[in-house]
Amino acid sequence: MLKEDDEDFEEEDEEENRAANRGKISAVLSVISSVVSGFLRNWICLKASEMLNVPSQSFPAAGSQQRVAPTGQSRNKVALKPGHSLLDWIRLTKSGRDLTGLRGQLIEVTEEELKKHSTRNDCWTCIRGMVYNVSAYMDFHPGGEEELMRAAGIDSTDLFDQVHRWVNYESMLKECLVGRMAVKPNPALQAQTEKTESTHMNGLPVSSRLRQEPLPTPLPAKDHRPRYDWFQTDGTVNIVIHTKRKIPSAGCAVVDLQDDILQVEMLLGKMSYLLYWRLSSEVQGRVDELFYRECVLVSKTDITHDTQVLRLQLPSGSHMQVPVGRHVYLKTSLQGTDVVKPYTPVDQKLIPPSQCSAEMGSDLHLMIKICPDGLLTSHLANLPIGSSLSVGGPEGSFTMRVLRDVTHLYMLAAGTGFTPMARLIRLALQDLTSIRKTKLMFFNRQERDILWCSQLDELCSKEERFEVEYVLSEPTDSWKGRRGQIDACMLQNFLERPEDSKCLVCVCGPTGFTELAVQLVRQLDFSEEEIHIFQG
């Protein structure tokens, strides 16, 4: 599914193209099949002004060469070295490394030239008229080097069909493409063609210098829209989504597997790329929209006297990486009425250990302030561990585009308006080296209300690019920090604008705080493009 505003999409596409030049990152999603034959059928559903990557009605089609060979016809396999799996090969092909030795140039290959490339370290082969340099693939080939060398320097189409006819080789070897096999000219046909060429004009011979040479075929415009590939083995089908733009470490994928429906959504700025399949057989995998997912409350952790972090476990068939700045919806039924409220997920800690990133997607952590008179939050406070909650989304207007070329990131947060800032801080310090300074001004009533105060202080002491200032409206006499409400003087000292800098001011909090903060920031000559308001 491609959800877009035409003007915004063109704007974002240009900027994301520049990011693609710095490195194309592919999101790789693997689904493990419990059967040997028959996997995906039906077709991809894309709600858009145009359809992207629409496969055939059946995936793979009945009788397709890409379906697994019948039992007993499988080939011998060798043990691959560590780091040489199918996914490792996919990563290598998307790393930008020149796998052809021709620096991206496509050539026409004669039969004589093909024969010259028949060694272990210089191995070309031809499949259906296209020539590939498979030297780099030697150590990744499941059948081993010896089997692959049988195809060295020759047209290996028949050999390939005997052993690998179900493999989607065009996608697997796309970055290894050398060019097209040259077609041998037929002497008789060539002589006839030359004879019938237009060599006269008005009955007079035309000089060869005046004969117009055919114009070269223009190269097609580069397509920067997302696409997907798939690769099937005897036991798995691997779906690879090429986003063609930089992805933050927090991820952007939402994967749902429920019964026979598999849905994958990539949240890419203002665009959403949705893949939808109906499966022909039951599959296994840890991977709704099915709109709301029934999650289980796993734990509650007290953060302050009135704020908790709720850990929700997604269903076994769901995987959700909520992009930075986006929120989800909690829904529950109270007295026969559905109550829905947005919450911005946080990480388990302000700066979680790097190994936790691999586990992201199966749990959600929501930082929630318990209000005694709040209908939903008072219900959550009394909700026992093991209870179910419906989670929908994610949604939100924040995109990575607003951080493009930003050097100074400022955040104004009040109370639980801190929640979108928490992951934004991590993003700025870990992923965005262009940001030279990240500053948070955090407004609360009392010192005991400050969320993750010790973690913020610890981060401030360790990271020279990060600063935090606390402002209390009802401080005790022993408080040594800032006091009062947000005002112009306070912000003028906080919002520095160094020479040759690009600033972004993010604001989140109660409605009254947000409106006043934005008004004051505008008075300091910050443009609309330099202000982002988190609303949920």
From TrEMBL:
CDD domains, per the entry: cyt_b5_reduct_like (cd06183)
Biological process annotations from GO: superoxide metabolic process
Pfam families: Cyt-b5, FAD_binding_6, NAD_binding_1
Residues annotated as domain Cytochrome b5 heme-binding: 106-182
Composition skew (Acidic residues), residue ranges: 1-16
SMART domains in UniProt: Cyt-b5
Residue intervals of the FAD-binding FR-type domain: 290-401
Annotated Gene Ontology cellular component terms: endoplasmic reticulum
GO molecular function: cytochrome-b5 reductase activity, acting on NAD(P)H; heme binding; metal ion binding
Cross-referenced PROSITE patterns: CYTOCHROME_B5_1 (PS00191), CYTOCHROME_B5_2 (PS50255), FAD_FR (PS51384)
Keywords, ordered alphabetically: Heme, Iron, Metal-binding, Oxidoreductase
Disordered, as annotated region: 1-20
Family named by the database record: Belongs to the flavoprotein pyridine nucleotide cytochrome reductase family.
Name assigned to this protein: Cytochrome b5 reductase 4
Organism of this sequence: Sinocyclocheilus anshuiensis
Gene designation: LOC107661012
